[in-house]
Specification:
Shape: elongated
Number of helices: 1
Structural class: mainly beta
Number of strands: 7
Number of domains: 1
Helix content: 10-25%
Distance between the termini: 6 Å
Strand order of the largest sheet: 3-6-7
């Protein structure tokens, strides 16, 4: 389990923010289902507890979560 270097909390996942992308959903009249995010220019992987940016690289995010 990873520990956030900012808030010190144990975390099992990171929030992934993609800036500048077009998000595609399917809408069935009642619910939305995420399909894809196209054309993102910057990704941030952040602590779900405090929002601290851990990395901008997916491989680094995987390494961080593995401890």
């Amino acid at each position: 389990m990873a520990i956030c270097p900012n808030c010190g909390k144990r975390i099992t996942f990171l929030k992934n923010y993609v800036h500048g992308c077009t998000v595609e959903y399917i809408f069935d009249g009642e619910n939305y289902e995420f399909v894809n995010c196209v054309g993102g220019t910057l990704e941030e992987y952040c602590c779900p507890e405090c929002g601290y940016k851990i990395t901008e690289d997916e491989q680094q995010a995987k390494k961080f979560l593995k401890g």
